[in-house]
Each structure stands twice: as C-alpha cells, then as structure tokens.
Amino acid sequence: MTIKTLLLLVSSSLLNKSSTAMIATHVKCRGGVYPRSTIQRVPVVDDEVSWSTEIKKYDPPDYTAQSVIGKPWADLDIADPNFKPKWNSIDGNVSRVSYLGDYSIVNGRPLNPMGRTGIKGRGVLGRWGPNHAADPVVTRWKKTDGKVNIQENSSRPILQFVAIKRRDTGEWALPGGMVDPGERVSAAAAREFQEEATNSLLMSQAEKEAWQAKFNKFFSGGDVIYKGYVDDPRNTDNSWMETVAYSFHDESGDTVGALQLHAGDDAVGVRWVDLDRQVQLYASHQAIVKAVAEKLNAHY
Ligand code: RP5
C-alpha cells in the first residue's frame, strides 16, 4: 500500500515556544483487526481516508466493546435518551472540544476529523468524539562516567527518555494516560508518569506526598511539545484519541534522571531509552519524541 499522504510533519499553531508536530493522516487506526476484538476493519486506502472523498460503498462494522458499556468513566450509549452531550464544548467536567477545531455530527454521531478508520462505534474508548490524554516525555542526557555521550555521526548529545511497555499491546510507549474529568491536562501528565513509571501505587499516602513535594517543581516546568490528534489503534470513525505531550527535561540528571523506575498500573516494563530514529513506539509517540530531540538539539 502506498502511503503517499503519510509522512509529513507540518508545523502548525505554536504552543509556548515549542514546535507542534501534526499528524497528517492516520495509519495505525486503519486496516486489520480492531484491538481486543475479532472485528475486522474494512480497508481504507490513503485516498479514501478523507470524508470529503466520496466512496460508493463504505459500510464499516459498528462496534462498541462490552468492556465500556455501563462504566462510570464512560459515556452512555449514543442512542440512550439520557445521553445529552454538548458536542464541541466543555460538557460539565468533560471536554468534548477537539484540538483540531469543530468536528461534524452526522446521524447523531461525532465524526473523526482525521477521516475514515474502517470501523464505527466507540470501540474500547470511553468517550464518543475526542478522548483526551496527556503524555509526559521525561528526558535526561546519556552519560558515561559523568560525561555526556556524543553520537559520532551527528556530533550531538544522546538523549534518553522514559518509556513504558504497555500491558495491552506490548509496545513501548510514553507513560501517558487519560485526563480525568475536571483534571488539568498538565497535572494528568505528571500523575500518569508517577503511576506508570514509578512505584507510587505501592506508596503510602505520606510517601506520595513526599514524592510530590520533591518533584512538583520539575513537573510544573514542562513545555508543551505536541497538542492534537493521536494515531491510536483504538480510534474509530466516531471516537478518537487526542493528547497534549509535555517535555520535562532533567538537564543535570540529578532529579527525575536519578529516579529508580518501576512499572506500575498499565505497564509491564519501564526503562530509559536512547533516543534515535530506530526507536519504535506506540501510536504517534515517535513523532512526539522526535520533536523533543529537535527542541533540545539532541541526536536523533
Ligand atoms: C495514547 O494513548 C496517548 O498518547 C496516551 O499515551 C495513551 C492514553 O491511553 P491509555 O494509556 O490510558 O490507555 O493515544
């Protein structure tokens, strides 16, 4: 399959001073079997992704996983008379606003602004429309005997970032997660790091507070590195992931860089990974770490 529209990292509206890499089209949420199911997506070739391209026959399966139905953290069924969402708005303490601008509602359902995915419904996602996540990119310089490692070919310093191995797909990923209703996105990024990459879930309340006191300053100084759509394998025509990714850099390596990592919650592994173009990551995380490398003038 030619992926002529894939690629592109185009810069868009800048947040703070950091550049925001945008995903030009989605690939990982097209084709194949939908995650945690036996439902086959209908194939959608590159030229058919956009809703503005008319397709004679497009009749994808309609799938909402049993695991989200009736859950307190999830929306009601779209046809439930008690479900009265305020699309494209802040709806109580749930944000139904997309970073991509207003999305369309067709036959009562929000339409994925990036186009067709070969499956409709909500899949395993909790929200119809945008599902908001936060991703922390925690970095330090790679050092040997206290000296920063310089990569021979690029002559640039090698950056390391914290990655977790996801329990659901087994892929390496940023230790991100969903923003809780009413939660500040930046707070969610720090909380997710704590839950996914440290042993905070085993800590007592006092230990958690001590951790927070120690790392509050570090995690309050993050730069927004990306804000937008995520090419997440769970996306559907009516439900999709969006994230804000924050870069938290430990220049000296003495703060978070010296932390003992511990896989928690949804992770089965955690480690410092040398950042370069060979790194394969979940969803759109590769584009995000690349943007961090560029921002810090690191080897990639
Ligand atoms: C990705 O899914 C986001 O970038 C974030 O890393 C993650 C959030 O989902 P869970 O890890 O909570 O499943 O799209």
From TrEMBL:
SUPFAM superfamilies linked: Nudix (SSF55811)
Top-level taxon in the UniProt lineage: Eukaryota
Positions of the Nudix hydrolase domain: 130-295
InterPro entries, per database record: NUDIX_hydrolase-like_dom_sf, NUDIX_hydrolase_dom, NUDT9
Pfam families in the cross-refs: NUDIX, NUDT9_N
Signal peptide positions on this chain: 1-20
UniProt keyword terms in alphabetical order: Signal
Keyword Signal in record: yes
CDD domains xrefs: NUDIX_ADPRase_Nudt9
Protein name, UniProt field: Nudix hydrolase domain-containing protein
Organism of this sequence: Plutella xylostella
